[in-house]
Write a structure and sequence with these properties.
About 85% of the residues lie in helices and about 0% in strands. It has 13 helices and no strands.
Length: about 325
């Protein structure tokens, strides 16, 4: 679990800063978040295909040399894949949530600065609590509600400040709200699908990427982003392509790390990890980009951090009490 959390946190932080750099902090200003998300998915699919073929090549070589079973197992995590419509239909709700998550995530990152982006994403804990109560029927204790209220106060304090500063920032803040909502739904539905399905978990990941590509394509096309994106004069510059491809490769790794995080932890742990990661990213943005932050902004971040800490503390305490009763 610790490895899954660390892997996700590091790769996700790197992905956010590189994507933001490509959008408006570097020399290119590629303001096409939907197209970028779709391109990332295409690269993810190509990486899956290449990884699968490499796995099979290595396995064949090992078989020829009669290498031990443990080594061959390490190179055989991707199973044989055959697209089946019935399976795609079952995974479609997860893919729709995933598309919503990455779409609004990139839109938020495009419209807002990194501090606003991370504060907006911190509300995912509150959405997870609401959805686990409504969709899964779990009871929510008052102290958990209190912790969520603290997070919500910090969130809306930032939202109020952004409304006073910039229309663009406030739009980005709203996109962050939607991204957090879809993130909570994605983690819940994916965890539920994994627990109820006997399929290899990597099969679910592959189907998710394929379905997400199909769902996101018409959105990019009918919004006109594709036409605008391919008309930029730097599209085929080697440096731009190198940065764009690098962000796509890192996004592929983030997709795997996010998948592993949800696989090995609960939806609530996933939300806590994302919220705490957002706090780290906010402070990194202050240090790296010399972002100015007001006392009011620090206070809103403090509410979010304290609320997240209390939420984590209460959940760990509840888990230990439950395990004690079971024993």
């Amino acid at each position: 679990i610790g490895m899954a959390i660390s892997f996700f946190s590091v790769t996700s932080i790197l992905s956010v800063f590189l994507t933001k750099y490509l959008m408006d902090m570097g020399e290119y200003s590629f303001h096409f978040p939907l197209t970028m998300a779709w391109f990332h998915l295409i690269v993810s699919l190509l990486c899956i295909i290449c990884t699968y073929n490499l796995n099979r090549l290595v396995i064949d070589l090992f078989k020829l040399k009669k290498t031990n079973h443990l080594i061959r197992t390490c190179f055989s995590f991707l199973p044989d894949f055959e697209f089946k419509f019935d399976t795609a239909v079952q995974i479609a709700p997860v893919s729709l949530c995933y598309v919503g998550m990455v779409t609004f995530n990139n839109l938020c990152l495009d419209y807002a600065d990194i501090h606003t982006y991370h504060t907006a994403r911190s509300i995912s804990i509150c959405f997870t609590v609401i959805f686990t109560s409504v969709l899964l029927g779990e009871k929510v204790q008052k102290r958990i509600i209190g912790a969520c209220l603290m997070i919500a106060i910090g969130y809306f304090m930032t939202g109020f400040e952004e409304l006073q500063l910039s229309k663009m920032q406030s739009i980005g803040f709203a996109f962050g709200l939607m991204s957090s909502c879809f993130m909570a739904l994605y983690s819940i539905y994916l965890k539920k699908l994994m627990s109820s399905s006997h399929r290899n978990h990597w099969i679910i990941l592959i189907y998710n990427v394929v379905c997400a590509i199909l769902f996101l394509f018409p959105v990019c096309y009918f919004t006109g982003e594709f036409e605008k994106a391919i008309s930029v004069n730097y599209l085929f510059e080697p440096k731009f392509l190198a940065i764009l491809t690098t962000t796509a490769l890192i996004a592929y790794v983030v997709n795997i790390s996010n998948f592993m995080l949800i696989s090995y932890t609960s939806p609530l742990t996933t939300s806590v990890t994302i919220s705490m990661k957002s706090v780290v990213e906010s402070f990194l943005s202050f240090a790296v980009h010399n972002t100015h932050v007001s006392t009011y902004g620090l206070l809103s971040s403090a509410f979010t951090v304290v609320g997240t800490y209390l939420y984590s503390y209460f959940k760990v305490k509840d888990k230990r009490e439950f395990e004690g009763l079971v024993d």
